[in-house]
Design a protein that fits this description.
It is a single chain. By secondary structure, the protein is mostly beta strands. It folds into two domains: about 40 residues; about 210 residues, Beta Barrel (Porin). Helices cover about 15% and strands about 60% of the residues. It is built from one helix and twelve strands; from the N terminus they run H-E-E-E-E-E-E-E-E-E-E-E-E. Strands 1-3-4-5-6-8-9-12 form an eight-stranded antiparallel barrel. Strand 3 and strand 4 form a beta hairpin. The chain is elongated, with a radius of gyration of 32 Å.
């Protein structure tokens, strides 16, 4: 009788353990499927890029971020909600105006060339918090470094007039920009790999204008003049880094 009771208890316990294991496995499977299908946010080792968004739903326009700086921005997500952020803008422009002689100088020509180069880079880090399955709030910080250079060269012309045997070269003024800021923002995922967001920052930006040097050569004579830096500018204020923006995860 005791053997029968013991065997019955062992059988009941085995069945109970089997059902409990099946229940746990089923719950783990459901939880895993929920995470895979329900989490819309960027995961580790994901890249994001984004653009500013203006206008209404039926009149939307895309533009680059950072306001007048117009920077391309990217993020790379590390483990545990940390993300690296990078933005940059490289601009190069060259313009040439031809100026033609009149009267006795007809058939001769001169030119005015203007070149401008600018570079702006910002790099930093973000910490994303848990939020919800769609909302990803974060804080972060970044540094900004930039500079620009300008050169103007006139050959056989200046001030819109043809001038034979005349050359003027002006280098500068260049500029140097340095900045540091803290940011706070949030991404709201409207679909898998697509989000809307906003970001504000508080920091400072220092901008210094460099000197310029002008060299003029006319009929074998040459003179040079250096103009010192016109000054610098320092700003410390809160700002909207980007208004509404739309981003994509890769």
């Amino acid at each position: 009788m005791k053997k029968s009771i013991i065997l019955l208890c062992l059988l009941t316990g085995s069945i109970g353990l089997s059902h409990a294991q099946d229940y746990n496995n089923q719950n783990m499977h459901i939880e895993r499927m929920h995470r895979q299908g329900g989490d819309l946010k960027a995961e580790s080792h994901s890249f994001t890029t984004e653009f500013g968004l203006t206008g209404g739903i039926l009149n939307s326009e895309f533009h680059l971020n950072e306001g007048t700086n117009e920077m391309l921005r990217f993020r790379y997500f590390l483990h545990n909600g940390w993300a690296l952020r990078l933005g940059f803008n490289v601009g190069v422009s060259d313009k040439k105006d031809n100026i033609y002689g009149i009267g006795p100088d007809e058939g001769r020509s001169g030119s005015l060339k203007v070149s401008h180069t600018s570079v702006l880079v910002n790099a930093g880090i973000e910490k994303h918090f848990e939020g919800t399955r769609r909302l990803s709030p974060y804080v972060g910080a970044d540094i900004m470094i930039g500079g620009s250079s300008t050169m103007e060269k006139a050959e056989n012309a200046d001030a819109g007039m043809f001038l034979p045997d005349y050359t003027r070269t002006t280098k500068g003024p260049g500029s140097l920009a340095l900045g540091l800021r803290a940011v706070v923002g949030a991404d709201f995922y409207i679909a898998k790999h697509v989000y809307l967001g906003a970001e504000a920052g508080f920091g400072f930006l220092y901008n210094k204008q460099g000197e310029s040097k002008t060299t003029i050569s006319s009929h074998g004579l040459e003179i040079s003049h250096t103009m010192k830096s016109p000054g610098n500018e320092f700003n410390l204020n809160p700002e909207m880094v980007t208004g509404v923006r739309i981003g994509f995860v890769f």
